[in-house]
Design brief:
Pfam families: Redoxin. One of its GO terms (biological process) is cellular response to oxidative stress. One of its GO terms (molecular function) is thioredoxin peroxidase activity. Keywords: Antioxidant, Oxidoreductase, Peroxidase, Redox-active center. By secondary structure, the chain is of the alpha/beta class. The chain has a single domain, classed as Glutaredoxin. Helix content is 27%, strand content 22%. The longest helix has 13 residues. The protein is globular, with a radius of gyration of 14 Å.
């Protein structure tokens, strides 16, 4: 269990679970089919912002954290970001519904599941008490971590919010 830090390579074995948005399953009550999303492969030649939340549909995550990224999608793209992704310990069905509830019907933000907080635990950023993913943000630029920080204050977005990540780019 090693915490990722700026200058590190992004691990080569990171896979999340994901339900790609389709018009056929666009209704919030419709279920798509989960697929594996090999982040290590998909992100190897891209600039990526990955932010993690303790849970979909939870207060800080839904009211402040995710909305900051939704509102700043254009500014992130202008800074050269190819992919914005959010992870939580929730299953892919909940993550898909969270994207639909927030009217994300394209790939401007990927809603990925970190089952059992496997990735977050591997970097030491899962909550020990709950087993959930921590609240953190990473910037990965062509396989190299250029920004990595975790919130230590409950409900804070000083390190993992869109404004902090934009300032780091």
């Amino acid at each position: 269990m090693t915490t990722l830090k700026a200058g590190d390579s992004f691990p080569g074995d990171v896979t999340f679970s994901y339900i790609p948005y389709t018009e056929e399953s666009g209704d919030i009550t419709a279920c798509g089919i989960p697929v594996s999303y090999n982040a290590s492969k998909e992100w190897a030649d891209k600039k990526v912002v990955l932010f993690s939340v303790p849970g979909a549909f939870t207060p800080t995550c839904s009211v402040s954290h995710l909305p900051g990224y939704i509102q700043n999608r254009t500014q992130l793209k202008e800074k050269g970001v190819d992919i914005v992704a959010v992870i939580a310990f929730n299953d892919p069905f909940v993550m898909s519904a969270w994207g639909k509830a927030n009217k994300i019907t394209d790939d401007s933000i990927l809603f990925l599941s970190d089952p059992d907080a496997k990735f977050s635990k591997s970097i030491g950023w899962a909550d020990a008490a709950s087993g959930r993913t921590g609240r953190y943000a990473l910037v990965i630029d062509h396989g190299k971590v250029t920004y990595a920080d975790i919130e230590t204050e409950r409900g804070s977005l000083k390190k993992s919010g869109a404004d902090a990540v934009l300032a780091s780019l």
